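BUG: 3D viewer hangs when loading the predicted structure for this chain

Environment: internal workstation, default settings.
Expected: structure renders.
Actual: progress bar stalls at 90%.

Input used:
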Amino acid sequence: MKITEESNDAGKTVLNHCSGCQHALFEQALRKSEANLRTIFDTTDTIYILLDTDFRIISYNPRAVDFARTELNHHIGVSEYFLDYFPPERQQILLHHMKDRLSGKNINYEVPYPQQGDSANWYHVRLFPITRGDNDIYGLMFAVSNITEKKLLEKELISRKVQEQKNIVRAVLKAQEIERNKISLELHDNVNQILASISMYIDTAKRQPHLQKNLIPQAKKHIDLAISEIRMLCRKQAMPQKRVNLKKLIDELLVDMNVQTDTQFNSQVAIDLSIDEDLKLNIYRIVQEQIVNIWKHANASEANIIIYQANGSVFIKITDNGKGFDPLVRRKGTGITNMINRVESYNGEVLIDSHPGEGCRIEIRIPTAPL
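Structure tokens produced before the viewer hung:
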């Protein structure tokens, strides 16, 4: 029996010793877990503030200290009433959020804190109930994240989108303005010239009644042509025909001018028919513009038009023996300006050589391929 009793006492000692070891290990693990939690709690960028149900501070992390000092102008402390840190206008809003959270509602919002100037720090606020796994709530946890950088990025993106929209609007307006200018140019350089021809036919018919039989049908023909051109402009097809035969167009133009005016117009056109249709049309408009300028202003007896290709460019030379002018003196009309604009739109060059009493010489070079 003695041996048995001694054996039992030894067994109890061993069991007690094992139980003590387990308790020590449990406490060690608990302390380690609490240490890890505290490390995370203290080193995270998120602001944590733990409140009881009376909204008094139980605990907080270092980020909360910084927040209270920089945004609230307070030194945070345990057992202090949290709402006392805020101005009256924020207290009411915050109290409403905390009561809603205690009643079971999810609270998640963003709030700005104005800084010097027009800037602000933005924070994302979340409220979590503190429980023990039951339905009772023992307090609230504030988790506050600084989202100022995110807000600035969002603002920049919005600003870029707004600027992009403005750029699109400007591009549309610019395109509309270009289109208006193009229509205006075509009206001036083409329709206006056709109407001028009609006027010449009528004036000639008045001065020379015996020519009315021939001139009136020509005037009617040009009226129909003007109507056709206006219709094509309305359809945004400001071309006299789909395939431009430049030599034919210029020859027809000069035949009319030789009939209607006292100036003898001559031409030499040697150009590749395969060049860009728009370029051929613009060359025609340039020649048309200068021919009308000669008729209206030069009082010339002779004018010559030479057009040819060489070294990847089209060369245009238009001369007259009229009264000339000073190119440096600003003129009221837009004819010369329109001509220069057309040439420069193709990266071309214009030389105007004229002096009062010495006629005019215009030389133009236009590349036939993009530079």
